[in-house]
Amino acid sequence: MVIAALANQPSAGAPARSAAISASNRANVASAAAPADAGFTDPRVYRVSPTLAVVRVPPASIAQYSTVESLRSPSKSPAAGHAIGAEGRLGVVVGRYGGRHSRSPGMDGVCMRNGGGVLGLLAPATSWGLFWGGWAALLPTLQDELGLDDGKLGLALFAVPVAAVPAMLLTGPLARRLGPRTLPLVTLGFALGTLAVAVAGSRWTFAAALLLIGATSGAIEVALNATTAAREALTGERLFHRVQAATPLAMVLAAPAVGLALHAGVSARAILVTIAVLVALSAAAAIDRRRWQEEAAEPGSARAERANGRLLIALSVVGAVGGTVLLMENTVEQWGAIHLTDNLHTGPFLASCGPAVYMAGLSAGRLLAQWRGERVGDAPLILGGGALGGLGLALAAAAWSTPTTLAGFALAGVGLAPVLPTLLAATGRAVAPSLRPQAISLVTTVSYAGFLGAPPLVGTLAGRLGLGTVLGVVALCGVVVMVGARSLRLLPAEAGPGTCDPDGASDDPGGSGGSGGSGGSGGSGEGDRAEGVRSDPPHHPRPSRRKGVAR
């Protein structure tokens, strides 16, 4: 990979400094990347071609970006270009340059100057978790205010999964069409659904509001995953673990907070209105004016159709592994407190700690995977996650004591935490940008089937075998997850990083984005070599930890 560090000079209309770019090609690269802009103050990364990235830094602040300064003088760190090219990263090149853990000030915002940075992912994930974390505490109060018996409440709640499944399937094509606008749009819909629940005054309006909640909640799950995958492709950063750690952490904090608010006399409607406002604010934070760069679909040849058939099977298998994880997860969430109450005779507080420590374990495990997951690799994360998850549930099922049972639930949370984010991230990297939203939608929807199936399946078996025995059986699903680590081999070779398109302009993957001009379609495939761009010296790319796939 050829990396260019360009310092913008508005008066001259062209960059004055360049690394890894020959003098004859500087103007070509500058015009391909973007026109000179006297007003920009943040670093920007542009994808010029599959082998060329351009980093533009304001002249006034270039000194603080030591990594860019090093790129201007590559002789100071001659090995850095090899490391960048071997990793195949784009967008975090400045942060990665100069050491594995080095990150220059302000470079987390690269490629995000038009909004929708990491905060744009964390905000919807957090607000989504706030709603569902407080939902269980709000339900008894809402039931009393609406005068619903258990049967009517159960039918109303059934509207959530009924609406969620088709919405998840439809959000993939919607995300392909709307790109980054999808997440703020569906998050705003979720805010309206929360507000509708707050003002519902009858059984029917309550059920209608829950239909909207279910549809938008399912859409958020797909849109959030698709947007995270697109951001990973654009920036090269690992984001899934960080983003998905926000939701369980928010749920753990929201449940007691809502309980305390209700105990203090705050009405359920006031709490829901507050949550709706927070969700709406998170939708605003998710606005991103850039669009995702998509590759044109290949003609529908027989070979392409066979490849799509194999991809569909691979994605379904990956989704089934994710569904196994969610089956284990929802078993703890729905039956953990009952297990502590029935088999260990704990009080309400300790019983509620079972799902709580599991969710806390999920957050901790995902943050740990964010910190060290890249060193471990995808397959080992899934193998270890399945092993720890199964061991933790087996320990909880043994019900030797309350502390050991709680420790088992926490261990299961830590173990299973990185599995689903790892599967989604691998899916996003493996497919072409034009197929990414649908692929993420399929994996998410198939996984959701395990989440939906857990309560009735465990309940039916528990009535015959006992809840402790059923938890032991569910613990064996950890073995299925471990075997499922091999499902990553079914995915195609990773598709390479996507295009960072800060100004919304379309870039041809092989050149500057036009049929003519520098690096046009006629010669874009070899434009870098033909136009005199000096590529990195030969190196041996670091093989992926997934067998047979070059990173």
Automatic annotation (TrEMBL):
It is a multi-pass membrane protein. Keywords: Membrane, Transmembrane, Transmembrane helix. Residues 526-539 have a biased composition (Basic and acidic residues). Signal peptide: none annotated. GO terms for molecular function: transmembrane transporter activity. The chain crosses the membrane at residues 117-135, 155-175, 182-200, 206-224, 245-264, 270-287, 308-328, 348-369, 381-400, 406-427, 439-459, 465-485. Gene3D superfamilies: MFS general substrate transporter like domains. Pfam families: MFS_1 (PF07690). It comes from the Bacteria. Residues 499-551 are annotated as: Disordered. This is Major facilitator superfamily (MFS) profile domain-containing protein. It comes from Embleya scabrispora.
